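Q: Joint fold for the lines below.
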Amino acid sequence: MEEKEKTAGQLRREILLDQRKNGYDRLTPEDEEAMRLYCEDYKKFLDAAKTEREAVDETVRLAEARGFVPFKRGMAVIPGDKLYRVNRGKAVMLAVIGEKSLADGVSIGAAHIDSPRLDLKPQPLYEDSELAFLKTHYYGGIRKYQWVTIPLELHGVIVRKDGSSVKVAIGAAPGDPLFTVDDLLPHLGAEQAKKIMAEAIPGENLNILVGSRPFKDDEGSNRVKLAVLDILNQKYGLTEADFISAELEAVPAFGACDIGFDRSLIGAYGQDDRVCAYAALAALLELKIPTHTAVCMLADKEEIGSEGVTGMKSAAFDTFMSDLCDAQRVALKTCYEHSFCLSADVTAAYDPNFAEVYEKRNSAQVNYGMGFCKYTGSRGKSGASDASAEVVGLVRRILDTAGVIWQMAELGKVDAGGGGTVACYMAERDIDTLDAGVPVLSMHAPFEVTGKLDCYMTYKGMKAVYEA
Ligand code: MN
Ligand code: MN
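A: Joint structure:
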């Protein structure tokens, strides 16, 4: 049968109109299989890395298996070298040295490995009405009502009085006990139900239930608390005062899993931003000898403003980069001004159940690929790095050449809210930076959802940028 000739209108449509298409209508069979394998590895990473410290440990384990070695000041830095440096156990930087000099700049993938959670207060343990609880201070932007009546695990580190430390991961192993924050029953919840959502669960009510059985053969008060401390002492050599020098984080006790009859989605805790951290890492681990040096920066403290010695504002990143530059006798400023950074962080996926807060034409959609944001911020782009047209144009060409499925988006309607990323702190260093990442449903909830296609395309996009 003869093919019907296209009308002038059809031809002009093909050329002129930007027609967005679902990623599954563009996915190649090769990418489909690679996507399946990638997402299985990603889910394993999520289960191994429920805190920033665990994300660092797992990153180092994966990197060392690929031949990465710790980078010490003064070491020679030659093409093909695979180096990493851990910042205080809570952030990590990796580099694959390229053919070109560091004076020609580096390609950076920056993501964060801290996630919203419930941190224990310094003096957390108390007993009330013969029940033992741990006081918490939430970390990051949580919707408090989402954190009650779900199973929780307790992860972190305790530094004892003598300086020795012990790692804790209670709930991570099969058969471990779990913890929870209780909530009011509906029968007595009439007054609570009248409150606005932000006030229904006050921050001081986020107390974690950790025991109910009194210490045997004891006449004193606080017998349940004593019994809990006795267990902690036997298991970890802990006394009550040791909580003061501990960092314990309550995180959801959900393993990463497939969501949907078609298994097209991933449900898990902490995908903001481990979904991008894993993409930036996995792409870097695949590199042989790139043209430009590739750097992966996995930062802590993004959820509370990138502050602190392990956050993106810390000079630890500059020190790592200047140590690399020193080895090639290159000025750090020369390296920075020729560098490019993808600030890889999640964005909001369009949610038809809450359509009123999105502007559909400019929202990221699940399964439309890696999401790019020219700017983030709120109230007139405040707090955004706002990448230039030239930078966006360059990235467009890189992605299209590499066959990456991607989309351009912004987070929600103008003045509906907003958010920031580490992008502005990279840009402040005189590094051209663009925001990019995976669209997420239920961002910051204990259980976040992403599309497998978008996860994989973010990995593929990171790799294209490292190899450009
Ligand atoms: Mn984030
Ligand atoms: Mn976040």
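Q: Anything notable?
A: Residues 294 and 466 are 5 Å apart (CA to CA). The domain at 117-252 is CATH 2.30.250.10 (Aminopeptidase i, Domain 2).
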